[in-house]
Model the fold of this input.
Amino acid sequence: MVLTDGDVAAIERATLAAVSPSLVMEYGNWLMALSTGSVRRAQSAVPLSHQNHSGPKTWESCRHAMAHVASVYRSHGQHPVFRLPQDHFILERAARELGLEPSGCYDVMVGGTAHLIRCASRSPHAESRRLTEVRAAPRPDAAWQSLFLGEGFDPVDGQCRMDHLSRSDSNRYFTAWWNGMPVACGAAAESHGWFSVHGMRTAAAHRGQGHASAVLRAMAVSALERGSERLFLQVESDNHAAVSLYTSLGLQTAWRYAYWKARPE
Done:
């Protein structure tokens, strides 16, 4: 799937619509999210274009814009954090001049909703998925919360993420049930022409059995019913099990990014 700069901007706007920062501002080509807590997408600045033009004017403009964005974060009592696409040499050079360094590596993966449904139907766990019931709700109910905050997950981080997701009216919450037990969950939202997936989690004892695939398929069906033909999600690049699952369902990495923040003192 070939993405335009307009797609990149729509994905970034849809991301913030779902994770609900306390404050969102724009400056030139930058989208600034400000919040506290552990949801870094809700407290970092991100470019709305990935064009990588060279030349002194482009460099000076980029450096000036990023310095201004950093000053906005400081004026709100927050350390500046930038979410920058990998291998964008102008942005990375400007970040280093601001005394920032990269942390982590994440994939933005995109795909078609109809294609995901077809792939899920052909997966090795298709029979398991058929026997898995997926329920959707407008709010995170007790079953969804029990998974999202359950054993094996950081409860403080989970509560922060759930609070952010809950602030958005566009999110819906999907829970997979197996033999009367909730086994996998996730949230999804429709915004800016994209269907976005967030907070995918599977109970440790039920991983690798097709339940997450069932949740994603139910999300894609819901998206298609609403006319959304494209979806995206973000995942840590070294989460090989998750990346493998998403790839098997037809999603492709559109770009990778890292968070750039001040070096530890």
Remarks:
- The chain has two domains: 5-106+258-262, 109-256.
- Residues 5-106+258-262 form one domain.
- The longest helix spans residues 56-75.
- The two ends are 42 Å apart (CA to CA).
